[in-house]
Amino acid sequence: IMAALLLLLPPLPLPRLRGVLQRCWGRVQRRLFPGLSGNLSPPWGPALAVQAPAFIPEPVSGTQESAEAPSIFDSIFWMAVPKKRRTIEVNRCRRRHPNKLIKVKRNIDVCPECGNLKQKHVLCGYCYAKVKAETRLIRMEMGKKEGGPFNAPTVETVVLYDGEKPTEKDEGKRIIERARKRLSWFVQD
Amino acid sequence: FQVNWAGTKNSWCSAAKIVILPCRWLAARSLFPLSCLPMSTSIEKPRKWEKKNRIVYPPQLPGEPRRPAEIYHCRREIKYSNQKMWYLAKLIKGMSIDQALAQLEFNDKKGAKVIKEVLLEAQELAVRKHNVEFKSNLHIAESMSGRGRYTKRIRYHGKGMFGVMKIVRCHYFVKLVEGPPPPPEPPKTGFDQAKEYVQQLRNRTLVHTL
């Protein structure tokens, strides 16, 4: 029917166009209705499409290491990957498990010297800071006395505060003067 | 409780108190929510925790047990993660304030320092403004962390690649109540669970029958 219509259409369009159209339509007809044109063999059913490799594979004894690129890709395909999104309930069970919560510390005591809190096996932070500050001042005095690097004397050092005199025991020692009252925790000798 | 403005016109200034009479607590704002009007891109965040300090209860009757003082305090937009702050908030829930301060002092997390400051501020507030007699007689009734405003920034990777990173902030809320901390609940034994189960079975009844 469509062929008849096509034949009728032509007067206006060019004859070349008509020929093209006819050939296209013929191809479409043969594809869709293979049984219409009588010359062809009876329609064949669906056939198995087997993908055969383009080349015949070499025997097994052939080169094994030539397949280097495929092995990398294989290892990518076999990587561990999450299968499903973890729900918030599962996430909460993991995040709030007792082994993830912060443990309550039971080794906190009061420092007998200053009264601040300290851990049992650690020096008191406040007392340490106080000692550190005083040590820094003593070291500055020592630096002023020495005057430069590598001038540390080979004798002992004694720190004396306000109003203190060196005793006979401090004969050959280097004396550092600190211009303040002796601190309660820095006991002499 | 019904709200009695006690003659204050501008009720939301910080000095005003909201007096509660023994009726219902009504929100004084107009019912028309302003958020539906197209004002600007950033809407006012609700800041309810700060307002909780403003409620004033009516004087107690002579026979009533003494109502313990409650102090609400918070810090907003702390540069720390909400999830990490949660662990610290969970640590101090239900402790006395001294114990909480001790635990936080020897904790190595960044949020521990922040929470310690917040607790000390709250303790100071309690003693100065909320008529708490002993600063040690406080315990932590509620301690929570909330999500703050996140900002997005570009993180530069190699080879011209980039990622979008979030600058994460959190809030921290604490409610101190006067008095010693409540004793911890004993964990549920198997015997208790079995008793509950049997009781549930016994409570079953027939419905839609005579």
Care to describe what's here?
The complex is a heterodimer of chains A (189) and B (210). With 189 residues, chain A is mainly alpha-helical. Chain A has a domain at 117-177. Helices cover 34% and strands 7% of the residues of chain A. Chain A contains five helices and four strands. In chain A, strand 1 (108-110) and strand 2 (117-119) form a beta hairpin. The longest helix of chain A has 22 residues, at 125-146. By secondary structure, chain B is of the alpha+beta class. Chain B has a domain at 68-178: Ribosomal protein L22/L17 (Ribosomal Protein L22, Chain A), CATH 3.90.470.10. Chain B has helices at residues 48-51, 82-92, 97-105, 110-129, 190-203, and strands at 3-4, 18-20, 55-56, 70-78, 138-147, 151-156, 162-167, 170-178. In chain B, the strands form three sheets. A three-stranded mixed β-sheet of chain B has the order 1-2-3, with no helix packed on it. A three-stranded antiparallel β-sheet of chain B has the order 4-8-5. A two-stranded antiparallel sheet of chain B has the order 6-7. Chain B starts with a strand and ends in a 7-residue tail after the last helix. Chain A binds chain B through residues 95, 100-102, 104-105, 108, 117, 119, and chain B through 83, 87-88, 90-91, 102-103, 105-107.
Structural class of chain B: alpha+beta
Strand portion of chain A: 5-15%
Share of helix of chain A, binned: 25-40%
CATH class of the domain at 68-178 in chain B: Alpha Beta
End-to-end distance of chain B, in Å? 44 Å
- Order of helix and strand elements from N to C terminus of chain B: EEHEEHHHEEEEH
Summarize the helix and strand pattern of chain A as letters.
HHHHEEHEE
Are there runs of chain B of 5+ residues with pLDDT below 50, and where?
Answer: 1-16, 23-28
* Largest pleated sheet of chain B: 3 strands, mixed
Helix run count of chain A: 5
The chain pair forming the largest interface, with residue counts per chain, is: A-B, 9 and 10 residues
Mean pLDDT of chain A: 82
Biggest sheet overview of chain A: 2 strands, antiparallel
Unreliable residue stretches of chain A: none
Q: How many distinct helices of chain B?
A: 5
Distance between the termini of chain A: 126 Å
What's the count of strands of chain B? Answer: 8
Shape of chain B: extended
Radius of gyration of chain B: 23 Å
Family (chain A): Belongs to the bacterial ribosomal protein bL32 family.
GO molecular function (chain A): structural constituent of ribosome
Keywords (chain A): Mitochondrion, Ribonucleoprotein, Ribosomal protein, Signal, Transit peptide
Main location (chain A): mitochondrion
